[in-house]
């Protein structure tokens, strides 16, 4: 191989690795509703000349819940496997008490029950849905707080549609989470809906709904801060790829 072709291959693999990282941006911690990249959970990402993408993930503690960990590793596997040019995805969770079961199960596409046997009560679909519902509640608070601060009344909030809310990243994120659940997410959809049924929240139920949304958002963000702190303590000299500083 000539020097020119060697450089070309290196550039190609670097570009593909960057594309893999972009795919990993779509993988979220199910509880925190944040990308594993931004949280610092991606320890390394490389792509070989034959297209094998090797991604190593790490978590804040050795005993992070195995169901949460499994979801992230499985989602990373699917995201990376779907990148054009990747011939095989190798997703490895390091330094976790259930790494062997999780890594082997995801690679074999055995599912959570197939990976953990009698220790697993069921697959994780319902757990995933529960966390997306919490994300909808937290997102509702993020979108509504600026509106309330600007002087919007409860009656006005109850009557607003998503299309009438000023554009924002938080608004886009709320729409996306609602769409994941099959909840109304178009411009003419009510801003405030029940995270289970999708029905509009009326004025009478609005105060309780907003309190739940605020508590969910505060809890999620507090957990995120704790996880970031534990990750820094566990890996003080190793920043994750794509990691962002605490907000």
The counted number of beta strands is: 5
Uncertain regions spanning at least 5 consecutive residues:
3-9
Order of helices and strands: HEEHEEHEHHHHHH
What is the approximate shape? elongated
Instruction: State the domain count.
Output: 2
Radius of gyration from the alpha-carbon trace, in angstroms: 21 Å
Name the structural class: mainly alpha
Provide a concise account of the structure shown.
With 247 residues, this protein is mainly alpha-helical.
Can you describe what's shown?
This protein is mainly α and 247 residues long. The protein has 2 domains: 3-122, GMP Synthetase, Chain A, domain 3 (2-Layer Sandwich); 126-229, no CATH class. Helices cover 52% and strands 9% of the residues. It has 9 helices and 5 strands; from the N terminus they run αββαββαβαααααα. It has helices at residues 3-24, 36-39, 66-81, 99-107, 111-116, 125-149, 154-159, 169-180, 206-234; strands at residues 28-29, 34-35, 42-47, 52-57, 88-93. The strands form 2 sheets. Strands 3-4-5 form a 3-stranded mixed β-sheet. It has a two-stranded antiparallel sheet with strand order 1-2. A hairpin with a 4-residue loop joins β1 and β2. α3 runs parallel beside α4, α6 packs antiparallel against α8 (169-180) and α6 packs across α9 (206-234). The relative contact order is 0.14.
